[in-house]
Amino acid sequence: MSDGSEAIETLQELGLTEYESKCFVALTHRPQATARDLSRVADVPRSRIYGAMDRLHRKGLVDVQRSEPKVYRAVEIDTALRILRKRYDAYFESVETSLRDIEPTYKEVDRGVWAIEGYENVTARTLAMIEGAEDEVVLLLLHENVLDEEVAARLREAIENGVDVHVGTVIDGIRAEIEERAPGATVFGSELIEWLSTTAESQAIGRLLMVDDDAVLTSAVFREVIPGYPEETAAWSTGIDHGFAIFVREILRREAKRSAAEATK
């Protein structure tokens, strides 16, 4: 049985204080308790119990029996989760509103190339770029571990929204997964893709992505520390006005035209 320490930490991340979290978790282990009981089992000073329990009661997480001494009871777990989820959503909506209020209405054209560290972060940027596509996505997948279910699902959503999706790969497993999870995508191979997919001992090209002939991303995959989870870094840009972006764009334009030509045969 868990000692509740993980739940206490998580509740604090959701906005409860340390004492509130300790008291609530302690209450979930028993039908009811007095302040004296909670001070002993929750390791909270008795002088701080009352304030913590009053706040939990106002938040709807604890019931109070107005006896002498007072007796406290945690609400059902499903009720508590519903309350906490509602509070979390409210915080999120508040932050979103605040951030959008301060976002400038005009931004200069992006002329920078931005670096990303980590497979999950590269995947997150890939997902965001695909989600923003309006006309076309060209994605070369050159390493067996750079495609996950979420990327495939986002490609399928793009296709459903009328976006032309071209996926270049010479890896049979990736081809099969795209054909299964993103039907409607044009999957193709070429000598260039085969050459780019040549795996070095310690590093290789991971993926190349272009969206709407504008935003581009290219990644490198390094030796895996954990099998199946490559170490990946990437560079990306949304402005096609410098050497990196133009180079990647021209490669992917070429491959997109090849894909389109093969699709019409």
Q: SSE layout and pairings?
A:
Layout: H1 5-13, H2 18-28, E1 33-34, H3 35-42, H4 46-58, E2 62-65, E3 71-74, H5 77-102, E4 114-117, H6 119-131, E5 136-141, H7 149-160, E6 164-168, H8 172-181, E7 186-188, H9 191-196, E8 203-211, E9 215-226, E10 229-237, H10 243-263
Helix pairs in contact: 1-2, 2-3, 2-4, 6-7
Describe this structure in words.
This protein has 265 residues and is an alpha+beta fold. Helix 2 packs across helix 3, helix 2 (18-28) crosses helix 4 and helix 6 (119-131) runs parallel beside helix 7 (149-160). The chain has helices spanning 5-13, 18-28, 35-42, 46-58, 77-102, 119-131, 149-160, 172-181, 191-196, 243-263; strands at 33-34, 62-65, 71-74, 114-117, 136-141, 164-168, 186-188, 203-211, 215-226, 229-237. The protein is 49% helix and 22% strand. The chain has a seven-stranded mixed beta sheet, with helices on both faces. The radius of gyration is 26 Å and the shape is elongated. The chain is built from ten helices and ten strands. It folds into two domains: 5-101, Winged helix-like DNA-binding domain superfamily/Winged helix DNA-binding domain (Arc Repressor Mutant, subunit A, Orthogonal Bundle); 114-263, Endonuclease, Chain A, CATH 3.30.870. Strand 8 (203-211) and strand 9 form a beta hairpin.
Write the H/E string, N to C.
HHEHHEEHEHEHEHEHEEEH
Count up the helices: 10
**How do the strands line up in the largest sheet?**
4-10-9-8-5-6-7
CATH H level of the largest domain: which superfamily? Endonuclease Chain A
- Number of separate domains: 2
Could you say which overall geometry the principal axes of the C-alpha atoms support? elongated
Helical content (DSSP H or I, runs of 4+): 40-55%
Main sheet characteristics: 7 strands, mixed
What does the average pLDDT come to? 85
Poorly predicted runs of 5 or more residues:
none
Architecture (CATH level 2) name of the largest domain = 2-Layer Sandwich
- How far the N terminus sits from the C terminus, by CA atoms, comes to 63 Å
Tally of DSSP β-strands: 10
CATH level 1 name of the largest domain: Alpha Beta
* Structural class label: alpha+beta
Query: Strand fraction band?
Result: 15-25%
The name of the CATH topology of the largest domain is Endonuclease, Chain A
Radius of gyration: 26 Å
